[in-house]
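In the laboratory, one determines a bound structure by crystallizing the protein with its ligand and collecting diffraction data. In a computational setting the workflow is compressed into a single prediction: the sequence and the ligand go in, and a structural description comes out. We illustrate the idea with 2'-O-acetyl adenosine-5-diphosphoribose.
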Amino acid sequence: MQHHYIVVLTGAGISAESGLGTFRDVDGIWSQHRLEDVATPEGFERNPTLVHEFYNARRKQAAHANPNAAHIALARLQADYPGTVVIVTQNVDDLHEKAGASAIHMHGELKFALCHECGHRWESPATMHPGERCPNCEQPAGRPDVVWFGEIPYHMDAIMQHLRASTLFAAIGTSGEVYPAANFVDDVRKVGAHTVEINLAATDGLSRFAEQRLGAASQIVPVWVNDLLAES
Ligand code: OAD
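The predicted complex, in structure-token form:
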């Protein structure tokens, strides 16, 4: 086995072929909505109806989406590889889980609601409304359990430990424009991990990753996973 500790970071690109939109591509989510309006605590304070509508629509879309060959290949890697395989995702959909993998959701999950008064989390209803009542403290303080700009991503201590232990790091379908995830490649290079970027199009990642595999995730990830399993 060439690598005993693999960390895979995924972004919206891995779910694109499952019909879920990416953010920064042409026609991406941020070309249709203002990030400041729907993905910041200030936006939620200003107009909770708009923010709930945005996430209700995304929750509905994600509920009907199926994992594609890339999610399925990563689940196979996690199940069959003799070393450790940790998937860290920036995605708020549950396609890794639907494929049978477990993933660390650093930007939260659409399927949960969070109380901004007491911090309680619960399974989100399909449609959330302004003033959604927390089942724990009963305050009308429910919000989607997603990390917004200006907030600290989840599970960072655990993620940093995995990155420090990694011998192979792959970033799949992410533009590398959002921090701290964009820095992970630099963190793992410091510990000598091999780095691979898998993306539809060439990004400036070439200067930061040792290896780049270009193409649709559903095509490239299964081949990459087969290579790893064949070597193991
Ligand atoms: P982006 O939309 O920024 O980037 C998606 C990347 O996926 C781009 O580099 C595309 O080239 C690539 N891509 C598109 N289709 C692909 C395919 N079929 N196969 C492989 N790659 C493909 O999405 P993220 O990098 O995930 O955060 O964005 C990071 C964060 O920014 C998100 O988690 C979200 C967003 O604002 C918050 O909302 C807090």
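Residues 56 and 127 are 5 Å apart (CA to CA). Keep in mind that any predicted model is a hypothesis to be tested, not a measurement.
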